[in-house]
């Protein structure tokens, strides 16, 4: 099933790959950037798209122009498109991952956290590989400090 968002540069087939496919492989370092961009264009796997965009974001930054289809198309534009797609398909781990790269925040984070904790639900927050468990209400300043 394919669905286009924002710039329509990335297509989607919903499938959940194994954990091994979700990790960014250090072999990406040895690949040509153009080869990665071609793989990004041809892939319909949300996890693979996330891995490639994560690599490009970390290696070249959000303003890196992928020049997809000969048009200016930055990593940030593609991340925004990915963020909308994974939200639409409710792939929450990728929503969190892409939101972290886009530096998205929730204005009323302490209220949302308190609502979850009152319902006796623990949760984690932060950026990938730098997450913290929240088990009690915290003021906004403490949340921002932990992030």
Chart the SSEs and their pairings.
Elements: H1 19-22, H2 33-42, H3 46-60, H4 75-88, H5 92-101, H6 109-118, E1 123-127, E2 130-134, H7 140-146
Antiparallel strand pairs: 1-2
Helix pairs in contact: 2-3, 3-4, 3-5, 4-5
Number of alpha- plus pi-helical segments: 7
From the alpha carbons, calculate the radius of gyration and give it in angstroms. Answer: 17 Å
> What is the molecular shape?
elongated
Strand-and-helix sequence, N→C?
HHHHHHEEH
| Helix proportion | 40-55%
How much of the sequence is in beta strands? 5-15%
Secondary structure category: mainly alpha
**Roughly what is the average pLDDT, rounded to an integer?**
79
Strand order of the largest sheet: 1-2
Low-confidence stretches: 1-6, 13-25
**What's the number of extended β-strand segments?**
2
Largest sheet, described in full? 2 strands, antiparallel
End-to-end separation = 36 Å
Compact overview of the structure:
The chain has 147 residues and is mainly alpha-helical. 48% of the residues lie in helices and 7% in strands.
How would you explain this protein's 3D organization?
The chain is 48% helix and 7% strand. The chain is mainly α and 147 residues long. A hairpin with a 2-residue loop joins strand 1 and strand 2. It has seven helices and two strands, in the order H-H-H-H-H-H-E-E-H. The longest helix is centred in the middle third of the chain and has 15 residues. The protein has a two-stranded antiparallel ribbon.
């Amino acid at each position: 099933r394919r669905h286009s968002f924002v710039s329509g540069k990335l297509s989607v087939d919903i499938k959940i790959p194994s954990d091994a496919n979700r990790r960014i492989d250090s072999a990406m370092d040895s690949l040509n950037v153009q080869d990665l961009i071609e793989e990004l264009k041809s892939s319909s796997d949300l996890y693979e798209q996330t891995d490639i965009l994560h690599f490009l974001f970390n290696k070249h930054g959000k303003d890196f122009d992928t020049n997809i289809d000969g048009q200016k198309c930055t990593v940030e534009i593609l991340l925004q498109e990915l963020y909308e797609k994974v939200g639409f398909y409710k792939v929450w781990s990728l929503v969190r991952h892409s939101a972290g790269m886009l530096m998205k925040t929730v204005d009323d984070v302490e209220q949302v956290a308190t609502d979850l904790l009152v319902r006796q639900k623990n949760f984690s927050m932060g950026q990938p590989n730098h997450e913290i468990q929240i088990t009690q209400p915290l003021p906004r300043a403490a949340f921002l400090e932990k992030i």
